[in-house]
Amino acid sequence: MRYRLLGRTGLRVSEAFLGTMTFGKDWGWGASVEECRKMFTAYAEAGGNVIDTANRYTEGSSERIVGDLLGADRDRFVLSTKYTLTMDGTDPNASGNHRKNLVRSVEASLQRLDTDHIDLLWVHTWDPNTPIEETMRALDDLVRAGKVLYVGISDAPAWLVARANTIAEFRGWTQFAGLQLPYSLIQRDIERELLPMAAALELSVAAWSPLGAGVLSGKFTRSGTDGPSRVDRSTVSEHDLTIARTVDAVADEIGASSSQVAIAWTRARRPSIHPILGARNLGQLTDNLAAIDLELPEDAVARLDKASAIELGFPMEFIAETTADFVYGSSGKQVDGRRAG
């Protein structure tokens, strides 16, 4: 496992993050404490150093398990958690991105994690009811207090992230260093706006669900691989199954598993993307970890790209079509320009 810098910071983070939404059985499909320990050990022995959890994962059990697993080695890891989601649906102030919920959530997370600071705190999702200025100032206060070291945001539109970091930059507040977004061969929406923005602002991207909720693992396309799943087979589209079969074919040709190919694709052209590896048992995680050293042949990447291609839509397609001749004229072909992302 190699390490990269988180966004525009000096923090070293491993190529893949360990996702712990499966840590604990409170939601009925997670892993036991003993299995969590095995997965944590395997990830650490592979060189991984980012443990990603959230206050709401398995109703708080994930944070408690993570805190116990870190133990005396706490400072060797980048501890990452999130806030926003409600922990008490009857209380209107127990959710959202406002200052009160932020402080309340962080204090509770610190207790569950048994630590005095969070290395990387993510805003879990956009809360349109809270001004982004309030969120950014409140996050900066926690950084200045030493309870949080770095901040990021998950599941938010590109315009909001760009505005938030611009405000923070000009007011001397802590800026978002990374994004946490869904990204896989069956969900490439972030290529339209979010990935180009991340490249322009030098933000790291933590990709959740790189296996498309397990669809790309071969679970529904290979015989003998059926097992417990959060996804109902009847809800999986034929389009997604076609992509999964292409993944299977590439995997068979290069001697890898379908999961390894799907994860490797997320990193094939964008080294700033860190797949979040979430598993329910040691076998799954061990298989996923092997994807970090898998380099897909160029023709395989091209086949996967073609099978999963999406329309970028307006304005990106319009810009690409018009800049060739209409905007720049014939001399435009002689200019080596910047890449959009």
Topology (elements, then pairings):
Layout: E1 3-5, E2 12-14, E3 17-19, H1 33-45, E4 50-52, H2 61-70, E5 78-83, H3 99-113, E6 118-123, H4 132-144, E7 148-154, H5 158-171, E8 176-182, H6 194-201, E9 204-208, H7 238-254, H8 258-267, E10 273-278, H9 282-289, H10 298-307, H11 316-327
Parallel strand pairs: 3-4, 3-10, 4-5, 5-6, 6-7, 7-8, 8-9, 9-10
Antiparallel strand pairs: 1-2
Describe the model.
The chain is an alpha/beta fold. The protein has one domain: TIM Barrel (Alpha-Beta Barrel), CATH 3.20.20.100. Helix content is 38%, strand content 14%. It has helices spanning 33-45, 61-70, 99-113, 132-144, 158-171, 194-201, 238-254, 258-267, 282-289, 298-307, 316-327, and strands spanning 3-5, 12-14, 17-19, 50-52, 78-83, 118-123, 148-154, 176-182, 204-208, 273-278. The strands form 2 sheets. The protein has an 8-stranded parallel barrel, surrounded by 6 helices. A two-stranded antiparallel sheet has the order 1-2. Strand 1 and strand 2 form a beta hairpin. Helix 2 (61-70) packs across helix 3. It is globular and about 60 Å long. The mean pLDDT is 94.
Write the CATH architecture name: Alpha-Beta Barrel
Which sheet architecture does the biggest sheet show? 8 strands, parallel, barrel
Number of domains: 1
- Tell me the number of strands: 10
Under CATH at level 1, the class stands as: Alpha Beta
The strand order across the widest sheet is 3-4-5-6-7-8-9-10
Q: Name the beta content range.
A: 5-15%
Task: Determine the CATH superfamily.
Answer: NADP-dependent oxidoreductase domain
Q: Quickly count the helices.
A: 11
Order of helices and strands: EEEHEHEHEHEHEHEHHEHHH
CATH fold label = TIM Barrel
Mean pLDDT: 94
- Give the N-terminus to C-terminus distance in angstroms: 25 Å
Low-pLDDT sequence parts: none
Class from secondary-structure proportions:
alpha/beta
Calculate Rg over CA atoms. Answer: 21 Å
Task: Work out the helicity level.
Answer: 25-40%
